[in-house]
Specification:
With 342 residues, this protein is mainly α. The protein has helices at 3-35, 42-53, 56-67, 72-86, 105-122, 130-171, 173-187, 194-200, 205-225, 232-240, 247-252, 258-274, 291-298, 303-328, and strands at 89-91, 97-99. A two-stranded antiparallel sheet has the order 1-2. Helix 3 (56-67) packs across helix 5, helix 9 runs antiparallel to helix 12 and helix 9 (205-225) packs across helix 14. The longest helix is centred in the middle third of the chain and has 42 residues, at 130-171. The radius of gyration is 21 Å and the shape is globular.
Length: 342
């Protein structure tokens, strides 16, 4: 297994875990927060889905381990190590632990990778003692390195990077809106998880909002550009599911992304000018489940502005750039966006 293949397996495990653990809060948390004045019981549901987010480190460990087809004992050991390295739990001076947030996603994934490497190194050497020693060795060595050695360094780096992006966007919202939207429009059709990245570096405010608009631009743009080559259900999946389904096409013919990136740049600039904001969880979701629009609404954007920027503008820009790059400057065609599912 090459280093790239190993890394992709880790990233895929993280991506699945982020969606499983964070989608309930992303979908219901934002919606129920808006409905609290008329549905007070929603506060209880918000608490439940918020608790679910703190299971992310364990899920990352387990789902990364599943990518490597480890045994149940090995999988559980990786889950424990990832939890230890995540920083999601802190020691309570009065005894026990205080569980809060999702932990540091980058360090959680790094710890899971260390645990996988350690398991490969141990191999079958433990024989009948596997059930006794595997979890102990993986927890103490990989989990210990994650918690004691890498966590403080990764925390400093992620706080610096997140602060730099969020702060710069606050000072230059239009310029950074363009940059972030284009980056996230490109990443959504790559193996990298936009949700995982946004959560890992703690994107917030206008930075999260404009990054989210990049995913929105990709969803609408890819849907419209390939409308003639795909049936209705396949086309609409770009919005209801994820634009990531276009990954293979984007790698085969990168030029197909030019109209999408142009779309993202314009929409990001509009979002930056309008002060569209979001959260670390919403930043990578786009319009799926109305996560992005709800986050923008809950962070202060008027409903009319949200509808304009998340529905009207992406539709108009998709039609415009599809016309430009398929008719006026014919460098793309609907077949570039064709999807076939067995």
């Amino acid at each position: 297994m090459t280093a790239w293949e190993f890394t992709l397996k880790v990233l895929n495990g993280i991506s699945i875990a982020v969606v499983v653990a964070l989608v309930p809060q992303a979908l219901l948390g934002a919606l129920l927060t808006a409905l609290l004045p008329v549905f007070p019981f929603g506060a209880q549901i918000i608490t439940v889905v918020s608790m679910a987010t703190s299971t992310l480190p364990v899920l990352i460990g387990v789902l990364v381990a599943m990518q490597f087809k480890l045994t149940p004992i090995q999988t559980a050991a990786v889950g424990i190590a990832a939890m230890c390295g995540s920083g999601v739990a802190t020691v309570d001076p009065e005894g026990g632990f205080h569980l809060q947030g999702t932990g540091l996603v980058i360090n959680t994934g790094l710890t899971a990778a260390l645990a996988i490497g350690l398991i490969y190194l141990i191999g079958d050497r433990l024989k009948s003692y596997t059930i006794l020693l595997m979890s102990t060795l993986v927890t103490v060595i990989a989990g210990g390195i994650g918690w004691i050695v890498t966590y403080p360094l990764v925390k400093i780096f992620t706080e610096w990077l997140g602060g730099l992006i969020n702060g710069t966007t606050g000072l230059q919202p239009i310029l950074m809106g363009i940059v972030l939207a284009m980056i996230f429009a490109a990443l959504i059709v790559s193996p990298v998880s936009t949700v995982g990245l946004a959560t890992a570096i703690m994107m917030d405010g206008v930075a999260a909002g404009t990054a989210n608009l990049g995913v929105v631009a990709a969803g609408f743009g890819l849907m419209v550009a390939g409308w003639k080559a795909n049936n209705f259900s396949t086309a609409i999946l770009h919005l209801l599911g994820s634009p990531k389904m276009q990954m293979a096409n984007a790698f085969k013919r990168p030029v197909m992304m030019i109209p999408i990136l142009a779309h993202a740049a314009v929409l990001g600039a509009i979002g930056g000018a309008a002060g569209i904001a979001g959260t670390p969880i919403s930043a990578g979701f786009g319009i799926t489940g109305a996560v992005g629009p709800l986050a923008a609404y809950n962070t202060g954007s008027p409903l009319a502005t949200v509808l304009l920027i998340f529905l009207v503008a992406p539709t108009a820009l998709s039609l415009l750039f599809t016309f430009i790059f398929q008719k006026l400057l014919p460098i793309t065609s609907p077949k570039d966006y064709a999807l076939e599912f067995d």
